Amino acid sequence: MKQKIRLGAVCLARTTFDFQAAKELWAGIMRELGSLEAVDLTLVRELVFEPSDARAAAESLASARVDALILVSGTFHLGHLALEIAKVVDVPLLLWGLPELSYNGGKIRLNSVCGVNLNASNLYKAGFRKYRASIQSGVDHDWVDAIRALVALKRAHVGIAGSRAHGFFNLGFADLSMYRDTGVLVDHYELGDIWKFPAKEQDVAARTADFRRVFDVSGISAAQLEKVATLAVKLGGFLDANALDALAIRCWPEFAADFGVSPCAAMSLLQSEDRILACEGDVEGALSMLMQRAVGAETPYFFDFSVVDFVKDEALFWHCGVAPCNLTDGECNCSLDTYFAGGKGVTADFVLKAGHLSILRLDSVDGKYRLFLQEAEAVPMEKELKGTYLKAKFSRPVKEVLSLVIDNGIAHHASAVYGSFVEPFRIAAKIAGWEVIE
């Protein structure tokens, strides 16, 4: 389900052009905007001609606390209008230009594109850069989804349990830099807060049945299965009790040593139920997953860029056994295993399904944020390893992709989703002032 947002929209015009035609077009645009999924809409229904109209519109939009604003250039118009509105409503803008109508008596009827050009130049020179221009008859859905991704971060309640994993310095983050650039404030919890969370016997029994239904559990003991089911109950309850939209967990070494099992299998099951959980204390990885879900992508998958084969030109996306279990290829034996942490691993083991992948990593360096973006194809493979994994092929040489990661110091985790979800993040990065690495 896409992130719900509040959008405002207004149409600018000038009486020296065909404003009556613009009014008819605006009526159609308002109907289209009203059909957008998960959008609370605030419309200025009448055309805005004069600076006084723009100031009144701005007050109405500001009181609605819109997350972003669509400025339609119904015709060419005064340069005051966008500036008066942006002065009061300081949110990302879509400067929407309409295709020109057929000429009438040798006269340009709308001159809408020039209106967009005027607004963009005025705003840019005034230091306002959070705009995107779009010249088309229909709404720019990629821009709308970009707003969803940014709003999801600002509204998210994100936590970290413990800290980053031992030695994973590159997963650290600066709280106030993150707040400045994303709006996210991270709440800290201790691992013990999860471990001591109550778990009712009947809930553990229900979760045990869930694990038996989804996984082959013959590779673990009854005691380990109960421990994993208990953790799933505790972790799910902890997320609900603290109203957490995403949680990064220091999953080793303390979990296996002190709780008795690693959280991988419990996280696999919970993630299949639309929970956002990042292992190894990777908060920025959790934010990457949140952004993907905000634009309508389902079930983000957290992976390491583990193996590259330059001869076959492919990569193995692997992690120790935490991928959402609903992403299995349906062919391999989906099982639980204890192959690491001295038999206390309790991880999921399966091959992920084939399909088109979109890859995202929100990453920080020197107090600044950037987005790593790629697309790839997950191709069928045999179950050859422990953990959760897939084989990926890019449209460019895998060596180039790996060089991008290495040369730019991108963290060793990224999030993948099935489907094509890249363009909204390019737009979001431009709005937020983040570098894009692809």
Description:
The protein is of the alpha/beta class and 438 residues long. It has two domains: 5-139, 3-Layer(aba) Sandwich (Rossmann fold), CATH 3.40.50.10940; 153-437, 3-Layer(aba) Sandwich (L-fucose Isomerase, Chain A, domain 2). The chain has helices spanning 19-34, 51-63, 80-88, 112-125, 141-155, 175-182, 191-195, 201-214, 222-241, 254-259, 264-271, 283-294, 398-407, 423-432; strands at residues 5-12, 39-48, 68-73, 93-97, 131-135, 158-161, 186-189, 246-249, 277-279, 301-309, 314-319, 335-337, 347-351, 355-365, 368-379, 388-394, 413-418, 435-437. The strands form three sheets. A six-stranded antiparallel beta barrel has the order 10-11-16-15-14-17, surrounded by four helices. Strand 14 (355-365) and strand 15 form a beta hairpin. It is elongated. The model has no long low-confidence stretch (mean pLDDT 96).
CATH superfamily of the largest domain: L-fucose Isomerase, Chain A, domain 2
What count of domains describes the coordinates? 2
Query: What is the class of the largest domain in the CATH system?
Result: Alpha Beta
Termini distance? 27 Å
Order of neighbouring strands in the sheet with most strands:
10-11-16-15-14-17
Q: Which tags fit this structure?
A:
438 residues; Rossmann fold; L-fucose Isomerase, Chain A, domain 2; 2 domains; six-stranded antiparallel barrel; 14 helices; 37% helix
